[in-house]
Amino acid sequence: MAQVSIVIPTLNEADNIDPLLTGLNELDLPAEDFEIIVVDDNSSDGTPAKVRAWEKRANVRLIERREKPGLTRSILAGATAARGNIIVVMDAGLSHPPERLPALIAPILDGSCDIAIGSRYVAGGSTEGEPLPRRWLSRLANWLARPLCDVNDATSGYFAFRRELAATIAEPAHGHELLLELLMAGQGKLRVVEVPIRFHHGTHRTHGTSRLSARPQWAYLQRLMTLAGGTVPAGAASRFAAVGLLSVAIDALLFQFLMSRGSGLALAHITSFFTAAAVNYSLHSGRSFRDHAGDLRWNRLGRALTIGMFALLMRGGVLALLIDGWHLSPFLAIFPAIAATAVINYFGTAFYVFPVSVNPPSPEVRWRVASIGIVAFAVLLRLIYLGTAELIPDEAYYWTYAEHMDLSFYDHPPMVAWLIWLGTAIFGNSEFGVRIGSFCCGLITMAYLYALARNLYDKSTAMRAVMLLAVLPFYFATGMVATADAPLVAAWAATLYYMERALIADERSAWLGMGIAFGLGILSKYTLGLLGPAALLFVILDPASRRWLRRPHAYLAAALALLLFSPVIIWNFQHDWASITFQSSRVQGVGDNKFSVHELFLHLMVLLTPVGLLAAAVALWPRTERDSSTCARRRRLFVGVFTGVPLSVFLILSIFDSQRFHWAGPLWLAMLPTMAWMMGQADDLSATARRVKAAWKPTIMICLLLYGLVLHYVVLGIPGIPYKFLSERYFWREATSEVEQIVAEVRQQTGQKPIVVGMSKWSVAAPLSFYNRGDEPMEIRSRNMFGDSGAMYDFWYPSESPTTRPIIMVGIWRRDLEHTTKIHDIDRMLLQPGPIQERVVMREGKLLRQVHYRIARGYLGKNP
Q1: Using an 8 Å Cβ cutoff, are 795 and 406 in contact?
Q2: Which of 180, 201, 227 is the endpoint of a domain?
Q3: For residues 821 and 863, what is the distance between their CA atoms, to the nearest angstrom?
Q4: Phi first, then psi: what are they for 13, rounded to 5°?
Q5: Domain C-terminal end among 227, 250, 285
Q6: Residues 387, 353: one domain?
């Protein structure tokens, strides 16, 4: 019995038969150990006759198919007739080098793998003479398949596999990509190796040439979608398109009608969307997704509503971006918004509402597909709303940093200011410019966390870890909001990655990356310094890592981090160590000497969700993984130490004082890979871990819906829900316009330009400064004019001379404008202070907020 059967599908390849079979028979392989099977698809150029001539002088067989031509069917026909226990598939167009055949079959012969792929896209592989469009298509096809099958060249036509694997191919398989079918059929169970080949593009490749037409490309995408678990709509494409066009027409016409009748933007687009979605669902559920016809159970309807809500909330951001940001009319903006809605609805319906029920993918593949979809939605949601949601006061304060660039600042290191300065230098003083740096930091965090989780576990775990990063509240916020936590989290993830590479993988070059990441991290926020003691403890506890204590790498990394941190040291030296003193006092709490361990856990429930906090607690339990190998032990130690040390610090501090609720957010980055690993385990989990695993799916859905609802609410509003939840700390764009009117009125009455004083540390003065878009900028100060702390305003405006210019005090609450604060008597510093007044800010008939202010005739100084 032959060990190797080479299957060669042909269609009009007469000119290539002789050189191909000559090359194969010249290989140094015993004739009795391999056979060549040529499967011809009814060629008209004499290909069968050429093959029959070879049957008389070599171990060659011809199979002539009379059915409809098809590459996959031809290969499977050859595999069925084969006598060998190893099947090799190769092209007849002289593209695949016969001399690489021994290297291709060797790993299967020695039992080290199940499939060997002749790969163009690994080290040593290449393509020659391939047209650029075809090369791009090939790269794109492999890029789309890569997340599902973990190989570089999933569309290779030159591969070998064990014969029994042919029986795993699903019946609907068709097209050119039999290898992809094999890989997906054995997902997670097959050992695969890629052998580099030099691919030569032939001039007579009927099967290959056809790939450049649109139909094979579309068929490939449909099959890839089916293998990933999505239902491809059945029936004629024209019917599917007709239903879609009808829904678009209903959506657009109803939207225009409601807008013309004076409805608000939010009410118009929500009403038109749900009307069109109901029509679309009712028509598609019984026609396009035929496998599920009549299946209108409540759970499917609930899933359809969930996907509809995702699409609706994303569409609200698109509308706001096009209308408010790009200044398109609602009539034009609705069509791109509908297109975005259609994409989300289509993929959500195919993969979530009506997933494949015949030959469904493995749970691992389903998790991968879900991770890709969830991460993509979360990233796009942030990107769409990045420039439309107004800044919160914290973001505006950090923007004022960038307006007063320095080596460092009183209450934070300078990294957040540098990012905002760069973003606004490129995109202008806009919300998008302020936040784009944080958005990029979120992407960097995803990349480093993915690499860390892949190194600790595997690719599927890494994808789930990134999904958790995208949906957990703290990390979703830091990937969008411009605060010091955004670069901190990115640097924290990078530091963990390089520490794992240095301490566990023993890569000396990783110490350079660790020094850079650590230095940039403490330039972002001092909290990252907690990873230093954690690394020292790990080295002490892990015998294999102790050698680094005797080598210079760790000390050089620390020196590099200190060098990067030098701007903060220089600034503090120039300002009497003001920042170091301030941060030291913050570490001791806010000064209330209050036991707050319970508050810490409540904060963590908000940062991670209750399910996330419970999952982290289960993951910290030493019996989560029962693998007792040295590698698993070191991995558990790494995760435990780099989570446990920072957590212990916050626990100890919370015994004596209250802590800021977000301080402990970054430390869970080390735990996310283990939490993600638990999500993918089918067996060997405790009862609690299984319950946590089951709770993740609704938690993820609820989180994404809440983020979308909040963003839609602050940008467009939600019909029937008032703005009172944000009426004091948000909507500073509208409040600033009102203050500008007050300034104009006072200036007209007095003939002098007034000074505007934000009566808080910075949360009034900073947003007023950012949103001051008048022809003449307002002169804005903070409450340090009256002796209270103004944070960086103490450095920018340390004193104000007495003046008879009008003073307009603006506060978040009425109590901020009272005559006497807890520390100072405001009235003694003012000339003829007036009463507290209010102005109301409205949007589409709904109260946005109130502006509280007082006017005085002048300022007498802090010590009148």
Answers
A1: no
A2: 227
A3: 16
A4: -120, 30
A5: 227
A6: no
Indicate the burial class of 864 (C-beta count within 10 angstroms; 0-12, 13-18, 19 or more): exposed
On average, the pLDDT of the chain sits at: 89
Helices and strands in the chain: count of H runs, count of E runs:
31, 16
The count of domains in the chain is 4
User: Is 721 inside a domain boundary?
Assistant: no
- pLDDT, position 198: 92
Domain CATH for 86: 3.90.550.10
Which pair of structure tokens corresponds to residue 200?
């030569």
Amino acid at 102: P
Q: Are residues 756 and 694 in the same domain?
A: no
Q: Does residue 440 lie within any of the structural domains?
A: yes
Structure-token pair, residue 538: 């790990």
CA dihedral 470, 472, 477, 483 (to 10 degrees): -100
What pLDDT shows up at residue 173?
A: 61
- pLDDT of amino acid 208: 36
| 348 and 384 co-located in one domain | no
* C-alpha to C-alpha distances, 554 to 337, 500, 514, nearest whole angstrom: 52, 13, 9
- DSSP state, 324? I
Cα torsion 77, 81, 83, 86 to 10°: value is 10
Lowest mean pLDDT among 232-246, 488-502, 581-595, 713-727: 581-595
Cα separation, 534 vs 528, in Å, equals 11
Q: Is residue 712 part of a domain?
A: no
Residue 193: strand pairing partners: 116
* 60-76 pLDDT per residue, tens: 999 998 887 788 888 88
Q: What is the pLDDT of residues 393-436, one digit of tens each?
A: 999 999 999 999 999 999 999 999 999 999 999 999 999 999 99
pLDDT of residue 206: 41
Q: Is residue 718 domain-resident?
A: no
| pTM check: above 0.85 | yes
Which pLDDT score is estimated for 468? Answer: 98
3-class SS of residue 489: helix
CA–CA separation, 788 and 830 (whole Å): 15
Which residue's structure tokens are 């330009």?
Answer: 753
Write a three-state SS string for 782-799. Answer: EHHHHCCCCCCHHHHCCC
245, 392: one domain: no
Nearest one of 680, 700, 701 to 690, comparing CA atoms:
680
Label residue 329 exposed, middle or buried (CB < 10 Å: 0-12, 13-18, 19+): exposed
Residues 494, 601: one domain?
yes
Distances from the Cα of 63 to the Cα of 38, 69, 179, angstroms: 6, 13, 21
Per-residue tokens: 229: 């678990």
For the ranges 316-325, 359-368, 738-747, which has the lowest average pLDDT? 359-368
Give backbone dihedrals phi and psi of 126, rounded to 5 degrees, phi first: -165, 170
Over residues 77-124, the pLDDT tens digits come to 999 899 899 999 998 888 899 999 999 999 998 889 999 999 999 999
Query: What is the structure's pLDDT at 565?
Result: 96
* pLDDT classification of 329: cutoffs 50, 70, 90: very high
- Condensed to tens digits (0 to 9), the pLDDT of residues 473-494 reads 999 999 999 999 999 999 999 9
User: Are 517 and 640 in a shared domain?
Assistant: yes
Here the tokens at position 458 are 């595997």
Residues 384 and 352 in one domain: no
Question: Cβ(504)–Cβ(635) under 8 Å?
Answer: yes
Least confident window among 213-222, 552-561, 712-721, 781-790: 213-222
Tell me the sheet residues that pair with 850: 840
Which amino acid does the sequence have at 439? F
Same domain membership, residue 252 and residue 394: no
Identity of the residue numbered 59: N
What residue numbers bound the domain in which 135 lies?
Answer: 4-227
**How buried is 453 (Cβ within 10 angstroms: 0-12 exposed, 13-18 middle, 19+ buried)?**
buried
Phi, then psi, of 271 in degrees rounded to 5: -65, -45
